[in-house]
Amino acid sequence: MKKNFVWFDGKFIPLEAARVPLLNHSLHYGSAAFEGIRCYDTPDGPAIFRLKTHVDRLFHSAEVLGMKIPYSRETVIEATKGLIKKNGLPECYIRPIIFYGDKMGLSPVGAPINFAIAVWPWGKYLGHDKVSAHIAKFIRLHHRSGVMSAKISGYYFNSILASLDATKNKADEALLLDDRGCIAEGPGENIFFVRGKTLFTPKKGSILPGITRDSIIKIAKDLDYKVVEKDIRPSELAKYDEAFFTGTAAEVTTIGKINRAVFSKKSKISAELSKTYLDAVHGKIKKYQPWLDYIK
Prior knowledge:
This protein is of the alpha+beta class and 296 residues long. The chain has 2 domains: 5-120, D-amino Acid Aminotransferase, Chain A, domain 1, CATH 3.30.470.10; 130-281, Alpha-Beta Barrel (D-amino Acid Aminotransferase, Chain A, domain 2). It is 24% helix and 28% strand. It contains 6 helices and 17 strands. The strands form 2 sheets. Strands 8, 9, 10, 11, 12, 13, 14, 15 and 16 form a 9-stranded mixed sheet that branches. The relative contact order is 0.15.
């Protein structure tokens, strides 16, 4: 049986050998920084999408938590590439995580720092061409509750509650509002709406400004669509033609309905953006080649 390898504290080891203490600070208090990254098969071999941007955000998130990372960005980039090569994966999802180790008590000062990277094959997260969304009874974390540009594991209790609420209401995914009643994002995705040839997306503030979101904004502008970042209220949903989620795991996922608001069955612009995005990540569009880090 083929072994799965992970990179753990500077070494490649079998997955089953990667263990952490029960009294792990991050397990008990959510004090970990992590990323979700994808590697895609291309005509020139496996390539990681926007790896440097993801690693920069990972370091930013760790710094928010007061962590002193014992590795350089270049070391992390090379470790990621080496891990994919060692596992022999043409395509995979990549999960780097930096976490505080064996220490109890809320203050992490003095706790050891652990750094791990895991990779595995993982298809499109939501799994459908068109999904339903339910507006959760829980709001997105207030923008002053943390540093919203950081991807910190403890924040995701909010996403878990929203996801459970969506399942209870027989929806594929949740949608969270901010503290003012405006649409924020999904539990693990940003959201866009389409009217005519204009895309609308919630402003930064309560959202994690996603790297896929940023990529779609660039692609949309290259395709001559206008992009507007603005407050969007649930009462306005009926005026939009299309809606879609974006995220590393979800990629570009069309939304068929949100609560009782139903969007166009054709979803032409969403489909065009999805196709262009997938062509870009698979190395088929020269303009977007700088987004790809190839594994040689």
